[in-house]
Fold this sequence. Notes:
The structure is a homodimer. The first copy, chain A, contains 16 helices and 17 strands. Chain A is α/β, with parallel strands linked by helices. Chain A folds into three domains: 5-175, Molybdenum Cofactor Biosythetic Enzyme, Chain A, CATH 3.40.980; 180-257, Alpha-Beta Plaits (2-Layer Sandwich); 263-417, CinA-like (Maf protein, Alpha-Beta Complex), CATH 3.90.950. Chain A has a six-stranded mixed sheet, sandwiched between helices. In chain A, strands 14-13-15-16-17 form a five-stranded mixed sheet, sandwiched between helices. A four-stranded antiparallel sheet of chain A has the order 10-11-9-12, with helices on one face. Chains A and B meet through α1, α2, β2, α8 and β10 of A and α1, α2, β2, α8 and β10 of B. β14 of chain A pairs antiparallel with β14 (303-308) of chain B.
Amino acid sequence: MEKVFASIITIGDELLIGQVIDTNSAWIAQELNKIGILVKHRVAVGDVWADIWQALDEESKQASIIIITGGLGPTADDITKPLLCKYFGGKMIVHQPTLDHVTNIFENILKRPMIERNAKQAEVPDVCTVLKNEKGTAPGMLFKTENKIFISLPGVPHEMKWIMTNQVIPLIPDVFPTGFIEHRTLLTAGIGESFLAEMIQDFEEALPQHIKLAYLPNYGMVRLRLTAFGFDKSILQGEISTCFQSLKEKVKDFLVVDEDIPMELVIGRLLKEKGKTMATAESCTGGYIAHLITAHPGSSAYFIGSVVSYSNTIKERLLNVSDEMLHTVGAVSEATVQQMAKSVLTLMQTDYAIAVSGIMGPDGATAEKPVGMVWVAVANKDKVITKQFNFRFDRRRNIELTSTNALNLLRIFIIETH
Amino acid sequence: MEKVFASIITIGDELLIGQVIDTNSAWIAQELNKIGILVKHRVAVGDVWADIWQALDEESKQASIIIITGGLGPTADDITKPLLCKYFGGKMIVHQPTLDHVTNIFENILKRPMIERNAKQAEVPDVCTVLKNEKGTAPGMLFKTENKIFISLPGVPHEMKWIMTNQVIPLIPDVFPTGFIEHRTLLTAGIGESFLAEMIQDFEEALPQHIKLAYLPNYGMVRLRLTAFGFDKSILQGEISTCFQSLKEKVKDFLVVDEDIPMELVIGRLLKEKGKTMATAESCTGGYIAHLITAHPGSSAYFIGSVVSYSNTIKERLLNVSDEMLHTVGAVSEATVQQMAKSVLTLMQTDYAIAVSGIMGPDGATAEKPVGMVWVAVANKDKVITKQFNFRFDRRRNIELTSTNALNLLRIFIIETH
């Protein structure tokens, strides 16, 4: 049994001029990884016949499974389908089940007349196997050659995901019996990448050939990922578990969680375990912390709400920050976030609260309060802890860094005060 | 003068296993586009010597400018620098200005001892021109061959952006005098991609060869982009302006804005022009609308704040939704969002308010209220408008769709009530 490699081709001018960020490829890679397929190569090309054709030629040299996304919409800038038809030597035919499906969507769901352009989505090359798209009008297509498969999927993420999950992933193990890939990931906070590397150098050097360590720094935290490849699943799992255990021991002073989950879910679990609740009072983050938390299903069990006090009048009126405080120490101060945290705790009647106030930039800085200066408070009914941060980045990154660092402060506070 | 093409190589296993989404490529493409460079190809490879080497070989056949990001960190999974050194036939030397820079960062900014690993970042191939990285420790590198340039940049987005903006973009026009690319983008809402295509079919077919139209559907809205390429800037601008004017005319009933800006900025401009303010009361979106608005500098001029009433107790206590209402029509109802909108308008003393309540999934649905059912209200002191939406997607997308559609409802309301 050999390693099976996949390649992903994404099609669309919007990717090359940078108007759209490709999130599909990352998702596809994750799903393929789970069944032991390594993505070896990813390529993006524009809506240009020759470039797509060449990508098909090139990628089929690199991999056994070629996943193609994009270029299947109903509009004229999409040339993928006729190209694939020609590439695999077929002719276009109407696929009746797809036509029925598209007709049904228009008649019964959208309740709009179907136009010629929509009906055309039911045309497919006669040399492909149609992959039903329950979430949209453009079907997926599977082309088989002697020892490779080519899969063409629509670029709309939720349509692509549905077809991958329900039709592509299940068929791959039959075509390509693969080895196994195991990943173990942990999250650290409070230590830089190079210091971490120094700390675990011996560990890294002692790793066996088939287990790799990667450093993934993000938002002031570093994830460490072990990846193992092998053909005996139980041996592999034993090996990687032993390595992972030893890695956890090495970094234990900075360990947030020994899974690949974000900070806000770590807090969610802590709160759920203890049956506790939380709220946020957000000035500079403008609701982003609340959004991070509520993006996860089940967050209503521990997240009660937030006051986004973007204007100082709201800090005064809803969070009891006094006019005097705002005029002496100012909105970005230890005293203000302390008051915000205490007030939102009372207002929302929660067990824990986060409050943040800072200068996110590019405007609003003063000599004493530069862009990136942030005060964070975390509180329960007995205690308020504050911390000042100084980030040196752009607005978006400052908002993200403030949010994850505030969440980390709360995480430590929950553990320590319990 | 010929078209100049660029290619982007991103390096890192984290991209291929899908743990990280590549946002760098989109940004780089946008910047290159502005100076007339077309990105023709983008490729992602893992931290594997042979794959990186092959990507360099392949991409240099495709393009004159090859931008390489990633693989320059201080840790052992990074092999890019020695590889580039070998590829271009150099040997590694210490670059004194970089060493001084790295030393300074540790001594004066991080105030931590510098370790061997950090010092090593000042080693570069002697055949490259060093591109200073003011934002971090890993320098950029420029390699020139007879008729191509290769630029290697760190993968950390704000470091990569600083080097691109300050050192790479300014030097390109000297090396490659290029033609011009002009884009014009507009945003539509309330019409599907295929209907839009039908509506502007004549327009599209009549476009000259060197002007292309693209459809970019996203979050229930469709952006239309015209792209023109040519060698006489003023003729090109005249042509594309004429086409764009005629496109705007064709889609005027669905036109949101004739620029490539997001919905929340359109609202921000409307409010700023009129000297008005707004607030949000968010249940199911959990602060995401507030975040979208406050992600933009200057939003404090019109955005006052938000009550994220995730729990019903907060709807009652802060937004005067009665216990009776919650028990009869429920939290996801027209009456509830009406009350939320009116209350937050009063509470925050703003001119306009948005309120949302819905079932984002995967949990929380009932027979009458399925996942994706959302009520939105927009209000000023005289009037409340409500609308029900039914989205059929996953939690993240439902949150995004609810937010942009609520913002669009407010946009229309602001225009109509003024």
